[in-house]
Specification:
The complex is a heterodimer of chains A (341) and B (389). With 341 residues, chain A is of the alpha+beta class. Chain A has helices at residues 7-23, 27-31, 41-49, 68-81, 87-99, 103-111, 197-227, 239-267, 273-298, 300-303, 310-323, 327-336, and strands at residues 116-121, 132-140, 147-151, 155-160, 167-170, 179-188, 190-194, 229-230, 233-234. Chain B is globular and about 75 Å long.
Chain lengths: 341, 389
């Protein structure tokens, strides 16, 4: 038993953080607000070239042959840096292609030459009808993406974006995520893999981003509490502020620990990995929401401005929170998947 | 990262589990008095004879010298077996004992450590005073050097099991001239010394473990000073991270069991309209939340223990676990009141084996004892986050 990330895992995180802050800095989100695609081609190219999309894929499709833990380290930084675009959905698409035996397609996603956004049905779907898309759909980062992933607890598959025309762009609350809507009428998914393997991976990697967000908010609030002066002293001397920063720390640490536990459980194929993943998702979502709110509060009036990046943590948390299953669904799963071992 | 235990560790776990199943006391732990003292000491004695006492004590002091992972496994199995934590032995095993190891003279160690491990004596802690709670260093019980003795006068409070204890780790003020942290002396106090009066305090859960202790010209031999006169603060602080992150492990495992028991309790209970509680969405949400939170508490402990196993000395991060555990325990206790409904109102005192109300009331102490949650937040804010004071 060892929950401390290895040196290799830490260096993945470090390299990812460095690259993401260089090619897709948070400030670029506002600049690209009116662009049809959230991430620039050059940023996408750099990320793909660095091999970040293939970290958890086998080397025969151009991956680095690492596991969910290494992907977790990457996506924690994606969350922390608020990196835009369909990074997670493209990684999931590669796994879906691989799991369904289409290694050529998996290699294209791993290399970044194809991108995948996300489609989620907004209506209830029966278990046995999960491989067919029907009704109102919400789309994440479909612009610039040839494919879309559909991830459910019953299975996961792919659909080509142009099969869902007409596709209507929607204004998104998150400048780093493009939203769209579409309507599907009996559109079958390709590369369908039954079961919740992809869903569990999605949960853990969403949790990873949420943990990164929770940590970033804590760090921003602590820095502000040390430097902002009122009544002649830094505001962090006041317990009302200090203890709020501490609560953010407890939430972030708790979420980080559960995230690592879940990722290691998945890599180790432990019997309660599913429970641990849902728990990680629930805990991380609460931490990200609470910390994002407290960060804005601690920044006072400045916290409410568009200029300050605190709101970006809020909107990314919400946008991610709906992308691959909801918090409510994970809460229910925590209760129904059986007691942790 | 890895959440699996090695074959060797697994074998150790099996050994612990088997031994506990065969040797743990079968009778319920008495709730107080000399019966509880005898029960706790007998159980400690049994552990000691079998070589399980002092799992975290170094071998040179007769302990098991277990690795931090073995400590974790021991406490997990202890909690899983549903065994009561032996609060009366806690100070000796986890505070006074380790302090003596770190700071006492050889003759003091030789005299005092073996009986703690063997289950022959109970130690209590004389730290808090009516005027010195969170601000412990402001303590004012007087110790005056008089020949070969130190003469102690004043009052301590919140001393658990003072009425059952043989020895006390006692902090007294021997010097008032300098800063408050200077001028404190750490003494070994014989609880049968003339001049000591002990008065139990009844707590809201019906317990009488807490005591007030009054000192009226109590003469303690100067040879019972641990460390140096006026340097007792450093002595008292020397062992705060002795358990290397495992301190709450058994309690956490018990909390997890309690949550599972509550989930089971919703299966066969109905509300006033005859609906099964298990179908109540509000309760389901709360149960799911605490189940996930209890899981993350274990993860937090595993993360701390992993760092300890790599040689890191646990710092104030331990406060994060303490803070989180104590608040989560209260949340679970409150949820239990809702699930058990009117049944939860029947007062059944201490030890929640007999009922829920004593447990519910008892949990109010968890955010106060051992450093209030507010003080824990100050510690984390100041020492982990480096926020200005």
């Amino acid at each position: 038993m060892d929950l401390v990330p290895s040196d290799d895992q830490l260096s993945i995180a470090e390299a990812a953080a460095e690259l993401l802050s260089a090619v897709a800095p948070t400030a670029s989100l506002a600049r690209r607000r009116d662009d049809s695609v959230a991430i620039s081609d050059s940023a996408w190219g750099s990320i793909a070239e660095a091999g970040l999309l293939g970290i958890g894929l086998p080397d025969r499709v151009g991956g680095a042959d690492a596991g969910m833990q290494e992907e977790t380290m990457l996506f924690r930084e994606v969350g922390r840096q608020l990196a835009p675009g369909p990074l997670l959905s493209t990684v999931l698409a590669a796994h879906i292609a691989l799991d369904s035996g289409d290694e050529a397609l998996a290699a294209e996603f791993a290399a970044g030459s194809l991108r995948a956004g996300t489609a989620r049905s907004l209506q209830h779907t029966d278990h046995d009808a999960a491989a067919v898309l029907n009704g109102e759909l919400m789309l994440w980062d479909s612009t610039g993406s040839t494919w879309l992933v559909v991830v459910t607890a019953d299975g996961a598959g792919l659909v080509q974006t142009d099969q869902l025309l007409p596709l209507r762009p929607e204004r998104s609350i998150d400048p780093g995520t493009r939203l769209g809507s579409a309507f599907a009428n009996d559109v079958p998914l390709s590369h369908w893999t039954p079961g919740d393997t992809t869903c569990i991976r999605a949960l853990v990697l969403v949790a990873a981003q949420l943990v990164g967000i929770a940590e970033a908010c804590r760090d921003a609030a602590v820095t502000h509490a040390k430097t902002r002066e009122q009544f002649g002293r830094p505001i962090g001397v006041n317990q009302a502020i200090k203890h709020a920063c501490v609560d953010m720390t407890v939430a972030a640490e708790q979420a980080r620990a559960q995230l690592f536990f879940a990722a290691a459980s998945c890599d180790g194929d432990l019997p309660d990995a599913r429970f641990q993943a849902h728990a990680a998702r629930v805990i991380a979502a609460n931490a990200a929401r609470d910390n994002a709110a407290k960060n804005i509060q601690i920044h006072g009036g400045m916290g409410f401005t568009m200029e300050f990046e605190g709101h970006l943590h809020v909107v990314r948390t919400e946008t991610l929170g709906q992308q691959f299953g909801t918090n409510e669904a994970s809460l229910e799963a925590v209760l129904t998947t059986g007691a942790p071992q | 990262m890895d959440v699996d235990f090695s074959n060797e560790q697994q074998a150790f776990r099996d050994e612990v589990r088997t031994w506990l199943a065969e040797n743990a006391p079968r009778e319920a732990r008495p709730h107080g008095g000399t019966e509880m003292r005898e029960h706790d000491l007998a159980w400690q004695h049994t552990q000691s004879k079998a070589g399980w006492a002092g799992i975290s004590w170094p071998k040179e002091y007769g302990g098991r010298g277990g690795s931090v992972l073995e400590q974790l496994i021991w406490f997990e199995e202890y909690g899983r077996a549903g065994l009561p934590t032996m609060d009366s032995c806690f100070v000796g095993l986890s505070h006074a004992g380790p302090t003596l190891m770190a700071c006492a003279r050889e003759d003091q160690k030789e005299f005092h450590l073996p009986p703690i491990l063997a289950g022959d004596v109970i130690w209590c802690q004389g730290f808090s005073e009516p005027g010195s709670g969170s601000d412990l260093a402001s303590l004012s019980v007087r110790g005056e050097v008089d020949g070969d003795d130190i003469v102690v006068n004043g009052q301590k409070i919140w001393t658990s099991y003072a009425d059952l204890a043989d020895w006390q780790e006692l902090l007294v003020r021997t010097n008032r001239s300098g800063k408050k942290h200077d001028g404190i002396t750490w003494l070994i106090c014989d609880m049968r010394s003339p001049g000591i009066t002990i008065r139990p305090i009844e707590t809201i859960d019906g317990g009488t473990d807490f005591c007030e202790v009054f000192y009226d010209d109590v003469r303690i031999p100067r040879s019972n000073v641990v460390g140096e006169i006026d340097r007792g603060w450093g002595v008292a602080m020397s062992t705060l991270s002795f358990e290397r992150g495992t301190a709450f492990t058994a309690s956490q495992v018990k909390l997890a069991r309690t949550v599972e028991d509550l989930i089971a309790a919703t299966q066969d209970r109905v509300d006033a309209r005859g609906r099964a509680l298990v179908d109540d969405d509000g309760l389901r949400r709360r149960l799911a939340t605490v189940r996930a939170e209890v899981a993350s508490l274990r993860s937090l402990t595993y993360l701390m223990v992993s760092k300890s196993a790599k040689g890191a000395i646990p710092g104030p991060e331990g406060s994060i676990v303490k803070l989180y555990y104590s608040e989560l325990q209260q949340k679970v206790a409150r949820l239990g009141m809702d699930i058990l409904g009117a049944d939860s109102l029947k007062f059944i005192d201490a030890g929640h084996r007999g009922g829920w109300s004593g447990y519910f009331l008892h949990t109010f102490s968890s955010t106060i004892g051992g450093g209030t949650s507010e003080i824990q937040r100050n510690i984390i804010g100041d020492r982990v986050l480096g926020l200005p004071r």
